[in-house]
Inverse folding.
């Protein structure tokens, strides 16, 4: 998400309220376009999270999904890191 971060950074450097609002609006537009193109990936991860939360036990022989990334980017909303795959 380099592009949205760029708009956020630019908005912090704005000299006027109007300039800040314009830059934030541009960044929001970019994020909306990104989610309209790639939103199915987020939906798939949310479905994985729902499946994981519904599991009563963890089978150590199952493949494991590990979500890694920078702090405070929302990884924890996906819950446990195992995938229930049917053979």
């Amino acid at each position: 998400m380099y592009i949205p971060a760029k708009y956020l950074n630019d908005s912090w450097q704005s000299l006027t309220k109007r300039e800040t609002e314009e830059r934030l609006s541009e960044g929001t537009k970019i994020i909306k376009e990104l989610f309209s193109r790639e939103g199915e990936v987020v939906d798939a991860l949310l479905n994985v999270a729902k499946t994981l939360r519904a599991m009563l036990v963890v089978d150590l022989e199952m493949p494991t999904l590990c979500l890694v990334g920078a702090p405070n980017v929302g990884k924890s909303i996906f819950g446990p890191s195992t995938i229930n795959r049917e053979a």
